[in-house]
Specification:
The complex is a heterodimer of chains A (462) and B (1177). By secondary structure, chain A is of the alpha+beta class. Chain A is 31% helix and 25% strand. The two termini of chain A are 60 Å apart. The chains are: A alpha+beta (462), B alpha/beta (1177).
């Protein structure tokens, strides 16, 4: 919802179809709350320059505790101007409000733009929505004719408490600054954090890595207790000069095996173009597990032997970490009739192994082992009947005499992908596939594109 | 014939699905049959999935083709079903070889249907074994995936007539091994009647599979039968089939993958193509013809037998009917010879009834009506439609129109030539119809009685939505497209609709959507039950047609709809529901209870009371049966009805038929003596007065269906059969070329007898107009009686009438707000809902009862009848602290005791009941009334405790402003309710002490009146305090906007601006004009918008709830005012200013086409020969 949209009378909550009905050439984008939160978090991080005490007020607010610090920036007004100015450069419009209580500031920022000269009066003028009660309670207050915070606050608190609960009273008192409202400063809270501080800076990367391995072992224990495994791990090496070196790895299956984790970190480290420079040494090593998934307690296979899924996954993880996730692919079955689209290669880390449809027992395979993409044109020389496979064809400069054949397997084109495909006869040519065996016993999968069109070989069976 | 012996061996496709295999088949039954014929097949077998719903259509299409081209159509038709099992058994196609076999099949399907919730069918292989006789079975080598059918928890008590206990079943191996086992078991039980179906589906391994099946068939000793398992007629239908597959699977076309068929091969293939496919196995082709030859059954053999009404020993059904009728006749004409006319009519009818063997039918209907009348209290009922042409029906009390007094055409009802069962429709009170229906189930037993089905078809809205979803269009695109469909006015989705929504058909996606929607329209979607058409049989009904569970408990319905029933000549009794009968009964009850006399439906009908007609002539007919719509109200002052027959014409004339046939104006001109009445005469040998006799009652203008038919018979020398065919043609197929044939015949016939050609042509045009609904006279006569009865009540007992109407809601044209407004306009004192005075229903109370805890003396007496919606009945004017002005104890105590009721309507006031509060449950109402017996409520807490109300009920009461008698207005009551923790009260109930301590007065600000009104509308959908427009008047006045009353009073031709809340938008007839009714505090105004202006104003017309209209006032000589709109502006947002927290928008009337799209009229599939009672045009 941008300013132009607002000017046109659109509002949040209006159905898109209705909005379109009003303004036909409306541009609409999907809301992305995650991205919004990410952005807010980045802004919050940026605000640490003004005060260490920054709290998120999602979805669109930030609370800065500037008590005792504003004079550093030339007073409240100057600070606000500074923030507005800085964010304006990032294309953001800010609605600031300063108040003694965080709840009051929050409410004033949302419900009125300018703080009045008399802060207490301004707070009282706020609509009851500023109390942030349940919608039903808010409506009840409005229906009772109490429209502002002041209206409510001037009634005996006992009558309010009897009707709207203690929360309502607390909310009022917080707004009026009569009650403490705790501020939760922002910090990222990964699922699991292990860290080790050093009394003396550690100058050697190897040692720091050894510490990391210990942390990984600690993390494994903890994960085991949680019956979880990590999917992403992040190692942070804090240098004494304030720089942070971060290494991130991810796995395709949840894991908590310290050895596996360390192997991935090692791969990552080896793959770095610049080796990690410890500078004046590290004073803190931290291992975070930002993402974890359930993983049942494991037991070793009794016989061992076959390549287990875990081993496969480990291999995939190592290779992906070393040569790039886009280069280790795994084939995935796709639900389609079109033979060349039946499988799709995806990065192996992303996609877990999937089940493939099983062929009917005792039946020869319907699909060849090797598929040409694109299919290769073959020459059929003699006049051929419109039904059935050719008796002789030329492929790769050699003639093949068809001795045995089976078919046709008729596969129609996907009409919905073609222009006008829904009209009769425009759905695209169908393919008639035949499995043929030539005189030398070689089997081919050939097809004809449409009743009179060319022949192709699409694959070889063996 | 030797020389054109076919080149290919004859072949019959015996596994063909139609679109009655819902969302599986992509062609309709007629198309399948036609294509099979075109391909030169020897026959076709229609077998839908666990259903025979489509076979009648296939059969009647086939029969018609055979009748029309007897030399060319050699196609044979087999009708059966494809049995799909829940236990992994391969699909089996079953064809009955004989009538008995058909009965076995339908009973098997009924068994499966009744096990499942509505629409499902749960069958197991073992069930089939119990019903094998005379069935020919084709076992297919695969099983369709069964649909999750929900087993019915509460089984309808149904007597299957034999032991259907599950027998011991063998453990079966899975497919394909199971196939051999199944074949073996079937061969053992039905030797010689089993085939194994084989299809060459172009799957790659067809040849190998065929060999396998050949081996299997040989081993089991059954022949192999060639089929293509067809899902549609031609390969063209593949896209449509893919789309319906996606709809079924709930997926999109892009994601459907292998759930779609790989190719388009499953269409009907002719003998040549099949011979090529089955080159290696020609005997499989030959088997199809062999199987077909063994089928001796066609649907013609469904010999229908009407239930044998118990007839006393020694009487024949005819004799008994004659006796009952004559006994009634003697009672009507005591101690005198029956009039000759009556005797002649009786002779004619009895002769027909005897020859057509309809006596049982009449006795059955008589029995149902007698049951309704015998109830205590009796259920009001009245026959309608063409049955009113029958004097037997009249004497038996089934209908109430005396055919003696009107020259009615009995052959319209039943005729020898027609060989068509009569159709008696009887209306019952809508709230009590269920009793009658359950009586019929009890009386005949479920195996012999079933409701007809209604096939629910795809309509533009549903088709666009579902196809759009499949094609991957986003919800908002389809929502936008379907929102532009004005109602469902056409069954087409025209190109212009796409353009209106802002989409171009040049866009590939939209073009695709448009074409597939066009194909899907009119596809059956599922079966539902008909509103009340019962099919009754002497033998088991489930041996004629499968029975299903209805959506409602205790309802079972058959699989065929009324067209199928007609085609098979089954008889059906329509047990219809009519809201007005409920209303009249309630009114009579109220009158009786209040000492206003004891009335019946015959209420001084012959009196032709001028006072009643005076009221109608003024157009004062809100709430009156049939003549309350805008169009009717406008017609009343022009027609000026003075007797019952005028009402008959009134009912019939405001219909699309007469309007489109341009008969209204000639009739009015002649009636008002502006134009001379003339009757063209034929040339000499014929009776010069023949038309005068025919059209005399209607001034020479044919208004009724019967007149059109008679005109054809008399003036154009049609035979009664021809006339009847004409009637059918005009009722069902108005757009089919058939009418031209009749036109020629009629014009020729009339000119031959000496009429002018242009007169003949005009007559035909008029008849054609009936194609879009005209009323038969008999039907209009029946309805006219109810018009009179309801007008009579409205005139003499307006409070009773309003109360009965409100208690019968939903019904009729108007919403409670308009009904109450009208009642107040007539001087009825309407009083607000109040916890200390109201009952659950709306009720009448003595006028002297103190209202709302105040003594009458302090009130402004009565309401001002000249200005509706004035807040005269607000008990407590907006006193900020009403509790101070009320002395509770004394008044409250008095009011709790029943007052001796005074006689006379003038002494009664209407007290609104709790049922007007949205979402207020009946249990709560009852609890309040019961608790009140011990004394009035004095506080919210008292109310909560004594009536045991949950917080929600209290909140609703407070929000409905129903606590004024305890001294609390809406706001204070809500404030109090919030602190009343009613759920803990029972603990303290024993203490009998006031639990909540007194608290300081919160001194809430007074609620502004506008907010009160908005809140009233939101909670009770009406306000006695004012109209929302009243509070916006100043705004509008400053813009120069007139009120509705001012607009109605303006001179003809004045250009005005007026505004009001939208009550109803309609687009009747051919849709060249849109009628909108708006309302404000002064009354209503009628807006007319021509269709060409509508396109420019579409958005405001569709979206406005508060509309500002600019236009020109047009006044008819009778004083009917229309505002011819030139521009419409949406001012809905103004309503938001009334209240922040209440949505106080008056509701739209039920006839509003935008909010409540109505089924399209006139499509042949939906046309009724008799229109429904409620038609708002």
């Amino acid at each position: 919802m941008d300013r132009t949209a607002q000017a046109l009378g659109l509002a949040i909550g209006l159905g898109l179809a209705d909005a379109r009905a009003r303004i036909p050439d409306l541009l609409a984008y999907d809301a992305d709350p995650h991205a919004d939160i990410d952005w807010l978090e980045r802004l919050a991080d940026g605000c640490i320059r003004y005060t260490p005490n920054v709290a998120l007020d999602p979805p669109e607010g930030l609370i800065l505790d500037i008590a005792g610090g504003a004079h550093l920036f030339g007073g409240e007004a100057a600070l606000v101007a500074m923030i507005e100015d800085r964010l304006a450069r990032a294309g953001m419009t800010v609605r600031p409000a300063c108040a003694d209580a965080p709840d009051a500031a929050q409410a004033m920022a949302r419900f009125q733009c300018l703080p009045g000269a008399d802060e207490a009066a301004a707070v009282r003028r706020l609509p009851v929505a500023a109390l942030r009660l349940e919608e039903e309670s808010e409506t009840a207050l409005k229906r009772a004719g109490l429209k502002t915070v002041g209206d409510v606050a001037s009634r005996p608190m006992a009558t309010i408490a009897a009707r709207f609960g203690a929360e309502a009273v607390t909310a009022i008192r917080r707004l009026l600054g009569e009650a403490e409202s705790p501020l939760t400063p922002r910090r990222t809270a990964p699922a699991l954090v292990e860290e080790r501080r050093f009394a003396e800076p550690v100058a050697k990367t190897d040692f720091a890595f050894a510490v990391l391995a210990e942390l990984a072992a600690d993390a494994a224990l903890e994960l085991e207790e949680l019956k979880c495994g990590g999917r992403r791990f992040e190692a942070q090496f804090f240098r004494t000069d304030g720089l942070v070196v971060r290494l991130r790895v991810e796995t395709s299956l949840p894991t908590r095996d310290p050895k596996a984790i360390m192997r991935l970190f090692q791969e990552r480290l080896d793959g770095l173009s610049d080796p990690v420079d410890p500078g004046f040494g590290f004073d803190l090593v931290r291992l975070c597990v930002p993402q974890s998934e359930p993983l049942a307690a494991s037991q070793l296979a009794l016989e061992g032997g076959a390549v287990s899924e875990t081993q496969m996954a480990e291999l995939v993880d190592r290779l992906s970490t070393r040569i790039g996730r886009g280069r280790i692919l795994r084939l995935h079955p796709q639900d389609t009739h079109i033979p060349e689209q039946v499988q799709l290669a995806l990065p192996a880390v992303e996609a877990p192994p999937a089940a493939w449809p099983e062929a009917a027992a005792g039946e020869p395979p319907l699909r060849p082992l090797h598929l040409f993409d694109p299919p290769q044109l073959i020459l059929v020389e003699d006049e051929q009947p419109t039904e059935g496979p050719p008796s002789r064809f030329r492929w790769r400069r050699a003639f093949h005499d068809v001795i045995l054949s089976e078919g046709p397997e008729r596969i129609a084109a996907e009409w919905w992908r073609r222009k006008g495909g829904h009209e009769a006869g425009k759905g695209g040519p169908t393919r008639d596939y035949y499995r043929v065996e030539d005189a030398r016993g070689r089997r081919y999968w050939i097809f004809r594109h449409g009743p009179k069109a060319d022949w192709f070989v699409h694959g070889v069976f063996a | 014939m030797k020389e054109d012996a076919p080149l290919f061996p004859p072949f019959a496709e015996l596994v063909a699905a139609t679109n009655y295999s819902f969302l599986r088949g992509a062609s309709n039954p007629r198309e399948m049959v036609a294509t099979a014929h075109a391909l030169g097949m020897a026959g076709i077998g229609i077998a839908d999935r666990n259903s025979v719903a489509g076979v009648v259509r296939a059969w009647s299409g086939w029969k018609k083709a055979k009748e029309e081209l007897p030399d060319q159509v050699h196609l044979r038709l087999a009708t059966g079903a494809r049995l799909v099992f829940m236990d992994g058994t391969p699909d089996i196609v079953a064809y009955p070889a004989t009538r008995r076999g058909w009965g076995r099949l339908t009973r098997l399907l009924s068994l499966g249907n009744l096990r499942a919730e509505k629409g499902g069918c749960i069958l197991k292989f073992d069930d089939l074994l119990g019903y094998l006789e005379d069935l020919l079975l084709i076992v297919l080598p695969y099983a369709s995936p069964p649909v999750e059918a929900v087993p019915r928890k509460k089984m309808v008590p149904y007597d299957h007539g034999e032991d259907i206990a599950p027998r011991l079943s063998l453990v079966m191996p899975p497919l394909p091994e199971r196939l051999a086992v199944i074949l073996d078991r079937l061969v053992l039980r039905a030797p010689g009647r089993i085939w194994l179906g084989a299809a060459m589906a172009c799957r790659g391994d067809d040849a190998r599979q065929l060999v396998r099946l050949q081996r299997l068939a040989r081993a089991a000793g059954v022949p192999l039968l060639a089929t293509n398992d067809a899902l549609y007629a031609t390969p063209k239908q593949r896209p449509l089939h893919d789309v319906i597959t996606c709809i079924r699977e709930g997926t999109t076309i892009a994601a459907a993958g292998r759930r779609l068929e790989a190719n388009a091969e499953r269409h009907l293939k002719g003998p040549e193509a099949m011979a090529a496919l089955f080159q290696s196995c020609p005997e499989a082709i030959a088997e199809t013809v062999r199987l077909l030859a063994r089928i001796k059954f066609t649907l013609d053999q469904l010999q229908y037998e009407y239930p044998h009404e118990p007839v006393p020993e020694g009487w024949t059904p005819n004799g008994w009917l004659v006796r009952l009728t004559m006994r009634a006749a003697r009672k009507r004409y005591p101690r005198q010879r029956l009039p000759e006319k009556l005797r002649a009519m009786l002779r004619e009818e009895f002769a027909l009834i005897r020859s057509q063997k309809y006596a049982y039918y009449f006795l059955t209907v008589h029995d149902v009506v007698a049951f309704a009348r015998a109830q205590d209290p009796p259920i009001l009922c009245q026959g309608r439609g063409s049955a009113a042409n029958s004097v037997v029906c009249f004497l038996l009390g089934i209908t109430s129109v005396d055919p003696m007094q009107h020259d009615l055409l009995f052959s319209r009802f039943v005729s020898g030539e027609r060989n068509e069962p009569p159709d008696i429709d009887v209306d019952f009170e809508h709230e009590r119809r269920e009793e009658v229906m359950q009586y019929i189930y009890r009386r005949y037993g479920r195996p012999r009685a079933g409701i007809a089905a209604t096939v629910i078809h795809y309509r533009p809205r549903s088709a666009v939505r579902e196809v759009g979803k499949v094609l991957g269009l986003s919800e908002d695109v389809t929502a936008r497209l379907s929102s532009t469909v004005w109602g469902s006015f056409s069954s087409k989705m025209e190109e212009s609709r796409y353009n209106e929504a802002g989409y171009s058909l040049d866009n590939e996606e939209i073009a695709r959507l448009s074409i597939i929607v066009g194909q899907l329209l009119e596809f059956p979607r599922h079966l539902s039950q008909h509103v009340g058409g019962f099919v009754l049989t002497e033998d088991r009904l489930d041996e004629t047609v499968p029975i299903h569970n209805g959506g409602m408990d205790d309802r079972t319905f058959i699989e065929w709809d009324k067209d199928d029933i007609d085609a098979l000549k089954l008889m059906k009794v329509d047990i219809l529901a009519l809201g007005m009968l409920t209303c009249i009964r309630k009114a009579f009850d109220l009158m009786r209870a209040n000492g206003l006399g004891d009335q019946t439906l015959e209420v001084d009908l012959d009196a032709n009371d001028p006072a009643v007609y005076d009221m109608l002539c003024k157009g004062d007919s809100i709430g009156v049966f049939q003549v309350e719509s805008r169009a009717q109200i406008n017609m009343l002052p022009r027609l000026r009805p003075r007797k019952l027959y005028d009402l008959t014409i009134q009912v019939a004339i405001v219909r699309p038929g007469p309007i489109e046939g341009d008969m209204v104006h000639p009739y009015l001109r002649r009636r008002n003596k502006i134009e001379a009445v003339e009757y063209p005469s034929p040339s000499p040998p014929h009776d010069p007065d023949e038309l005068k006799n025919l059209l005399g009652e209607t001034y020479g203008v044919p208004l009724f269906q019967e007149q059109a038919m008679k005109l054809a018979i008399v003036a154009a020398a049609f035979s009664p059969e021809d006339a009847n065919r004409l009637r059918r043609a005009m009722a069902t197929f108005r757009n089919v070329g058939k009418m031209e044939h009749f036109q020629e015949k009629m014009v020729k016939g009339m000119t031959a007898r000496g009429y002018q050609k242009d007169f003949a042509e005009r007559c035909f045009k008029q008849i054609e107009g009936f194609g879009s609904y005209g009323f038969p006279e008999s039907h209009a006569l029946s309805f006219a009686r109810l018009v009179y009865v309801s007008s009579w009540i409205k005139h003499y007992h307006p409070a009773v009438f309003c109360c009965a109407l409100l208690n019968s809601q939903p019904m009729g044209f108007y919403a409670p707000a308009q009904l109450v407004g009208d009642a107040r306009h007539h001087g009825v004192d309407v009083r607000a809902i109040d916890v200390n005075f109201s009952n659950g229903d709306n009720s009448l109370e003595p006028l002297l009862l103190p209202r709302g805890g105040r003594v009458l003396a302090t009130e402004v007496s009565g309401s001002n009848p000249t200005i509706p919606f004035v807040s005269s009945a607000v008990e407590t004017p907006f006193d900020p602290s009403p509790r101070h002005s009320t002395s509770l104890g004394t008044n409250g105590d008095k009011s709790a005791r029943p007052f001796p009721l005074e006689r006379g309507e003038g002494k009664l006031a209407l007290r609104l009941g709790f049922r007007q509060i949205d979402g207020f449950s009946e249990t709560w109402s009852n609890a309040i009334v019961a608790a009140r017996a011990t004394g009035p409520f004095v506080s919210i807490e008292d109310l909560a405790r004594r009536a045991g109300l949950p917080p929600r009920a209290l909140r609703l009461l407070a929000d409905a402003d129903a606590c004024r008698s305890i001294g609390l207005d809406r706001r204070e009551a809500l404030w109090d309710v919030r602190r009343t923790p009613s759920d803990v009260l029972p603990l303290f109930a024993a203490a009998e002490a006031r639990e909540l301590a007194a608290e300081p007065d919160a001194m809430l600000p007074a609620m502004p009146k506008s907010e009160h009104v908005a809140a009233d509308y939101q909670t009770a959908r009406l306000s006695l305090k004012g109209h929302p427009m009243e509070f916006l008047r100043e705004t509008f006045r400053s813009e120069g906007v007139l009120s509705c009353a001012e607009t109605n009073a303006a001179k003809d031709g004045t250009r005005v601006r007026t505004a009001g809340v939208v009550l109803v938008r309609q687009r009747p007839g051919k849709g060249n004009a849109i009628f909108v009714t708006i309302e404000d505090e002064t009354g209503t105004a009628n807006i007319l918008l021509w269709a060409r202006l509508f396109e420019r104003n579409r958005r405001p017309v569709m979206a406005s709830r508060l509309m500002l209209v600019e236009g020109e006032v047009q006044k008819s000589p009778e004083g009917v005012v229309h505002l011819m709109a030139s521009r419409i502006i949406d001012r809905t947002e103004e309503l938001g200013r009334l209240s922040e927290t209440h949505q106080g928008t008056p509701e739209l009337l039920r006839a509003d086409v935008v909010a409540r799209p109505q089924a399209p009229r006139g499509h042949p599939r939906n046309a009724r020969i008799l229109p429904k009672s409620r038609d708002f045009h």
